[in-house]
Amino acid sequence: MSNKILNNYISVDCVIFGFDFEKLNVLVVDRTLIKDNGEIDFTDLTLTGNHIYEDETIVEAADRIIYDLTGLRNIYLEQFKTFAAPDRLKKENDRKWLLFNDRNPDNRIVSIGFFALLATQKVTLEWKGRNVRWMPVDEITELGFDHKLILSEALIAMRNKLIHEPIGFELLPEKFTLTQLQKVYEIILDTTFDKRNFRKKVARMKYLIPLDEKQKGVAHKPARLYMFSREVYEKTRKEILNFLV
Amino acid sequence: MSNKILNNYISVDCVIFGFDFEKLNVLVVDRTLIKDNGEIDFTDLTLTGNHIYEDETIVEAADRIIYDLTGLRNIYLEQFKTFAAPDRLKKENDRKWLLFNDRNPDNRIVSIGFFALLATQKVTLEWKGRNVRWMPVDEITELGFDHKLILSEALIAMRNKLIHEPIGFELLPEKFTLTQLQKVYEIILDTTFDKRNFRKKVARMKYLIPLDEKQKGVAHKPARLYMFSREVYEKTRKEILNFLV
DNA sequence: TTTAATAAGTGTACTATCAACACTATCAAA
DNA sequence: TTTGATAGTGTTGATAGTACACTTATTAAA
User: Fold this and answer.
1) A175, A180, B51, B74: least CB-packed within 10 angstroms?
2) How far is the CA of A218 from the C1' of D6 (A)?
């Protein structure tokens, strides 16, 4: 084994999940390079990533990436894994990498993976005119670099978190109905729940606050709207931890 | 904000937790530098870390670090977080860092944090004669660099995992008693459990296999020994996931 | 060989949560 | 006013959680 230590380039890659009440999407960047004669030289899709600047923390870099692409701040964001196989960007991808970067392919690229959760409707994709678009998770068959792997691991981490902690509402507008919340869980965890049992469970979660407000303009009985209260959540969480989980 | 991108040095830092039936310990490295005249120039404790070599994956580097320090392979290991504040190793620690390293302090040091779980008795600390020793977690008040922060985050991640997944036995010898297992949970989660209820719960976990073997040489009724079966665990886990968690 | 010390091992009654299941209410649009 | 669509609601049986005290098997000391 070689004991040589590589130079390393750090990038923060964000898997931005967006829910549109029907399916789970990921924000992808369309990298298309046009030749001088107008033909497409090369095209692929990648996750959204960037470098960490000199005076930034990792989280600041991730926040900046989210802001650049969506125009949004204070989005739910979680660091889930770091990727750094020595040859992860080489082999088949070398040429693509060099097309878009001037870096030395001998260096190792280390990606710190984050996932973000938001409601697609919050985002105006025309923001800054980037080649960015939503793509349903289950239609993504290929991504540039090793971003397919990063997406898979993000999905695992996100599902795991969704099962154990109340983050489902992060994929919905601030005010949401219980049916919408149930759909978040059903679609992401690929299952179905009994409506009455789901509501009984929600009723026990004191941090989901029922509002005196209903849906408007729907062609059926309008549903009551709910909000998440972080304050109540932190309080009950502490109580639980005091008596131990 | 500066858009300058730093050079980055990647290190893999391992928080090696060891349980000795009574308390949770961490493997720390004693860094003591002696002056020419025999006086101690400087001393502190740090976590165990190292660089990633050219042809290694992150996990291989972590495995190598564990092996170098303990002589053990196939230890439970989990990547939990990556640390990279721009000034994390500077300020007060600059001198210490330079004493032990020839690197440029302007570069950013990125640490990929792992935690490992094992029974202290498995380790022969004389291995390779390193300045390495066990230290009880709750006696660690200070560590070099920002390793105290890394330790805190490792503890949070480890406790969280311990609550949600069966990893407690990783801190015990291959064959263990239920009282030993109960103690793992009680000490790490800082609580107590009722013995009968704990055993009822364990009885439901089919992957904890009772053996036809008992403790020997103890001055009380000898306890039955148990083993973890990964095979049974993977099977029941799949069944659970099929019907959804 | 008896006794003391120590931890192992075991059951029950009550409460809370889980899981399965079907009908009525309210709104917009036709 | 009828139709279509989704909201909203209770009960029962099974499973898991919680609180609680005594007997048993072994070694060491008397």
Assistant:
1) B74
2) 9
> In this complex, is the C-beta atom of A102 within 8 Å of any C-beta atom belonging to chain B?
no
Instruction: Quickly count: other Cβ atoms within 10 Å of residue B80's Cβ.
Output: 20
Interface contact A1-B52, CB threshold 8 A? no
> Which CA-bearing residue is nearest the C1' of C28?
A219
* CB count in 10 Å sphere of residue B84: 24
Cβ of B199 less than 7 A from strand C = yes
Q: How far apart are CA A87 and CA A95, in angstroms?
A: 14
Q: How far is the CA of B192 from the C1' of D24 (A)?
A: 24
Question: Is residue B43 pLDDT above 80, yes or no?
Answer: yes
Residues B210-226 have pLDDT tens digits of: 999 999 999 999 999 99
Which residues of chain B have a CB within 8 Å of the CB of A6? 52, 54
Cα A241 from Cα B218, distance rounded (Å)? 35
The span from the CA of B32 to the CA of A207, in Å, is 51
Structure confidence by residue, pLDDT tens digits, B93-118: 556 555 555 445 566 788 999 999 99
Beta bridge partners of B77: B116
CB contact under 8 A, B110 and A57: no
- Model's pTM, two decimal places? 0.92
Query: Cα–Cα distance between B146 and B82 in angstroms, integer?
Result: 12
Mean pLDDT of chain A: 87
In A20-151, DSSP assigns E strands to 24-34, 40-46, 48-51, 76-83, 108-119, 132-136
Q: Which of B53, B108, B164 sits opposite A1 (nearest CB)?
A: B53
Contact B6 A58 (CB under 8 A): no
Residues of B in contact with A245 (CB under 8 A): 163, 189
Q: Which residues of B111-148 are buried (b: 16+ CB within 10 A; e: fewer)?
A: bbbbbbbbbbeebebeeeeeebebeebeebeebbbbbb
Summary mean pLDDT of chain B = 87
Name the packing angle between helices A195-204 and A178-188 (round to 10°): 110
More confident residue, A35 or A77: A77
